Amino acid sequence: FGYADQMKFLLNRIKGHEEEAIFFFDEIHVAAQEKKFTDYLKQELNRGRLHCIAATTTEEYQKTILKDKAFDRRFEKIHVSDMDDVNVKEVLQSIVRETTKCVFVDDKVIDLIIEKTNAIMKGEKSAKSNEDESKQKKSNHHHQPWFSVQVLTSAMNKVASSVDSQYVPPALTQKKSLLKSLQLSLNANSDFRLTTEEGRKKLREIRTVEKGIAQDEKKLKIKKIQIEAFKTLRQDLQNRHHGLKKGATKVLKAKGKKRDEGLKNFYGEYEFLIPQLSKVLNDLKKEINDQNFKIVVDETLVDEVIKQLIENEKKESLSK
Question: Which of 20, 39, 60, 156 is most enclosed, with most CB atoms within 10 A?
Answer without folding.
Answer: 156
